[in-house]
Design goal:
alpha+beta; DUF4191 domain-containing protein; about 10% strand; DUF4191; elongated; 5-stranded mixed sheet
Length: about 240
């Protein structure tokens, strides 16, 4: 009999993750190394300058402030790279089927509930409709060609109205056209909706909608974003 290893799976270390994040971001921003070096150098320079200006101006004081500036420079460089990595991730998934599901299932926080799977999908054209329920009401998001989403959107809106009468229903379309929301601004747009229902009502709405929702597990999953890969690329 072959013995099974009981050792836990080894996860990438901090520096390995940092290197992967740097490599991923550099694909979209080739000037990233120079920017990070510049931030660190500026941090050291400011630290040394403070050491000169603050009495007594001894060499040990200058070195100490220089090291402090170095640490702040490294921190600033990491924050900058993380923000650029987030922008790079949005650039990569923009326009890909399934991107909407990934964003609303990971970026909305605890005040909203959403699934990575669409609640309605056209397997031929890959147009899909997603739903998020939160304190702002119910949000129906269309992904794909807007003209071909009309029936899917209307079906989902009618279903929600039947079980959640009086709850605000918002319809958003992901894209770059007029009255459309870019994928990078989707989560902030949803979270910015004014609060319209309390937690108890929200829980009741979620339960009612789920009870009448048609199962889409038998439908083909839109090809595009690999959820596991997308999560791995998401900056921590």
């Amino acid at each position: 009999m072959s013995s099974r290893s009981t050792a836990p799976e080894k996860r990438p270390g901090f520096f390995s993750q940092l290197r992967s994040l740097f490599t991923f971001t550099k694909e979209y921003y080739s000037w990233l190394p120079w920017l990070l070096i510049g931030i660190v150098v500026v941090g050291i320079g400011l630290g040394v300058l403070v050491g000169f200006l603050i009495p007594p101006g001894a060499i040990w004081s200058i070195i100490l402030w220089g090291v402090t500036g170095l640490l702040f420079g490294i921190l600033g460089a990491m924050i900058t790279m993380t923000r650029l990595a987030t922008r790079a991730m949005y650039k990569r998934i923009d326009g890909m089927p399934g991107a909407t599901g990934h964003i609303i299932s990971t970026n909305l926080g605890r005040k909203w509930q959403a699934s990575e799977m669409p609640v309605g999908v056209n397997p031929k054209t890959q147009e899909a409709v997603y739903r998020a329920v939160g304190r702002g009401g119910v949000v129906i998001i269309g992904e794909g060609a807007r003209g071909r989403l009309t029936r899917l959107i209307n079906d989902e809106r009618s279903k929600v109205k039947r079980v959640a009468s009086g709850v605000p229903i918002h319809v958003l379309y992901v894209g770059h056209g007029e009255d459309e929301v870019p994928i990078a601004k989707l989560a902030p747009t949803i979270k910015a909706l004014p609060k319209a229902i309390d937690r108890t009502t929200m829980a009741a709405v979620i339960k009612r909608i789920e009870s009448v929702s048609q199962s889409v597990t038998s439908l083909p999953i839109p090809k595009g974003v690999d959820p596991m890969k997308a999560r791995a690329q998401r900056p921590r």
